Amino acid sequence: MLLSGTTCFLEAMLTHGSGVGNVARAVEEMGIRACLGKLVKFVETNPALGVTDARDRDVHHMSIDSLLDAHKTHHDSCDGRLQVWAACGTPRGAPLDGYAKVGEACKAHDIGITMHCAEAPGDLPIFHDVYNMSPMAFCRDAGLTSRKTVLAHMCHLDGEPDLAILAETGTSVAHNPTSNLKLASGIADVPAMLKAGVSVGLGTDGAPCNNSYDMLREMHLASILHRGVTLDAGSVGAHRALEMATIGGARALGLATEIGSIEVGKKADLVVLDLRGSWAAPWDPETVRQGGLDPVDLVVGSCVGRDVELVMVDGRILVEDRKLVDIDEGEIIKAARRAVTGIQSRSGVKATQKADWTYE
Question: Which stretches make up the Amidohydrolase-related domain (predicted)?
């Protein structure tokens, strides 16, 4: 994330296996800013609904008490760069009162909430058939809606009534276009959300659902995707996509007074892009000053994470000349390769290969 220009992230579903402490140590070492969503889970395996969840075996490690312990231990650590949030999965049959207890605990302890919600086509029928309500009516009745809540995906809502609840409660949405397209989940109606006054930030989802944490690629996709859906060339666009990735994300996290834009009094979280190559031509600062070139259109339309030259968080330079300053990237890559080898060995899963292709 740092190498592609992300200075702050919200982890939307940190499981027991990952360990909040492990990720907190990584945040400390890397110098990045983070909101870690500690998963609070209920038993969700439900054959009647066709729902299976292997994480149910660790459900006792993902209780409200475990959330409160993690919050007490790690919240506001890393020189104030780390927050601990509550995370919940999309409701798929678990009782509403369980989610309500999460909402009560978070309100009592001033803890942010993030939840996957209405992501896949099959989610909306579950809200209707199991809970007899819309996705946002569920969240409202469970006490999960507030200015301290970020709901991820939101591809399948009940139109204007759900949008009204989002806007009235100040609940934010994390739009993840690459993930939603890769997983064939659907497309969130972001233009309607923005028109209704909903706060929308831009996300990537997890690496398996995205293949990259490149927020510049995400901005580009968000800036053109909704034009094709709405047949409106003015829908969303580059400026709005940039806002969703910066100040919109900061606003969703409750950090808009601290980060998200370059202003006097805010923290020094900065990203510098290299626009000197052919990919950014005809970039010219003087032409920009004279109004002949829109730098936002150029950055969102032409740049990717590899164009990030420098990254600063809290006034500390973490990436310089496209390299991590204090961390050995090579060792991280080696560790990742070892981990992948172990996962493949334990699972026995292999990538599909085309019979008429040669793999070397």
Answer: 1-317
- Domains delineated in the chain: 2-252 (3.20.20.140)
Q: Which residues contact 92 (CB under 8 A, 6 or more apart)?
A: 44, 46, 49, 51, 123, 126
Read off φ and ψ for residue 84, nearest 5 degrees. -110, 125
Spell out where the chain has E strands. 8-14, 33-39, 82-88, 113-117, 149-153, 172-175, 199-202, 270-273, 308-313, 316-320, 323-324
Find all residues with CB under 8 Å of 54, minimum gap 6, and list them.
none
352/314 Cα distance (integer angstroms): 44
C-beta neighbour count of 156 within 10 angstroms: 22
Rounded (10°) angle between helices 237-245 and 215-230: 140
Nearest residue to 139 via CA among 91, 84, 185: 91
Q: How far is CA 59 from CA 53, 73, 144, in A?
A: 10, 20, 20
Q: How many Å apart are CA 276 and CA 296, to the nearest integer? A: 15
Please report how the helices 64-74 and 96-109 are oriented relative to each other, as an axis angle in degrees rounded to 10: 20
- Whether omega for the bond prior to residue 135 falls within 30 degrees of 0, making it cis, is no
Tens-digit pLDDT string for the chain (360 aa): 999 999 999 999 888 778 899 999 999 999 999 999 999 987 665 666 666 666 766 777 889 999 999 999 999 999 999 999 999 988 888 899 999 999 999 999 999 999 999 999 999 999 999 999 999 999 999 999 999 999 999 999 999 999 999 999 999 999 999 999 999 999 999 999 999 999 999 999 998 899 999 999 999 999 999 999 999 999 999 999 999 999 999 999 999 999 999 999 999 999 999 998 888 888 888 999 999 899 999 999 999 999 999 999 999 999 999 999 999 999 999 999 999 899 888 988 888 899 999 998
CA nearest to 35, candidates 203, 244, 219 = 203
Show the tokens assigned to 335.
Answer: 């560790």
Indicate the SS3 state at residue 26.
Answer: helix
**β 316-320/323-324 pair status:** antiparallel
